[in-house]
């Protein structure tokens, strides 16, 4: 691993290159916050994909792409006299120190749960920080991730089940309510009850220490791999998927499972 001086030299070189590109490259010179934003969202998703795959080279590459965007937005801001990358770093450092009084102050927190509970209380006290417990949950978050964050924040201020096992009664209750609305045929109510059921399942995952987004993505990838096997094997057998019976596809599905 590199020394602190080597890390600083690498970061300094990166910023120098960005300055040069911003000045001399036509594409870099024309970029704005608005033009970069869609690419930033894409880069974050690509990083998330690399993290799920646990590919070291891909993670390093995608982290670099995300870092480029952080520095690029800071560069654009500095050109307008608003702030620069040093201000971003200083602001982040001050926030980290303020939010860790158990390290930099006299607050006590011996477990990760205690740290998380302190975190929510501290954010409510921050200058310019969240005014309500759930205010810090971005509206644009995907629904599954948002549900997890909402529940986590509520739990950190004590709004949670007394025992995690109690959540299963809620899951069963929501399953029953979905069934009742399916029988009624009211589409709006059906959607609402499916939402309640998904919310309860996300809650159960959180209580058992499972990240629902990661869990669902693992299942997505597993399904894709198995279904790709069915499709590839059917071609080798000279068959069209649409002409195969469910039993034939199930046999290939089980074959795919056995190869994992």
Notes on the structure:
The structure is a single chain. The chain is mainly α. The chain has twelve helices and no strands. Helix 3 runs antiparallel to helix 4, helix 8 packs across helix 10 and helix 11 crosses helix 12. The mean pLDDT is 92.
> Main β-sheet, in a few words?
none
Structural class: mainly alpha
The low-confidence runs, each spanning 5 or more residues with pLDDT under 50, are none
Q: Give the C-alpha Rg.
A: 25 Å
Which descriptor suits the 3D outline?
globular
- Terminal CA distance: 35 Å
Query: How many strands in all?
Result: 0
The helix content, as a percent range, equals over 70%
- The portion of residues forming beta strands comes to under 5%
> Topology as H/E string?
HHHHHHHHHHHH
Whole-number average pLDDT? 92
Count every helix, treating DSSP H or I runs of 4 or more residues as helices: 12
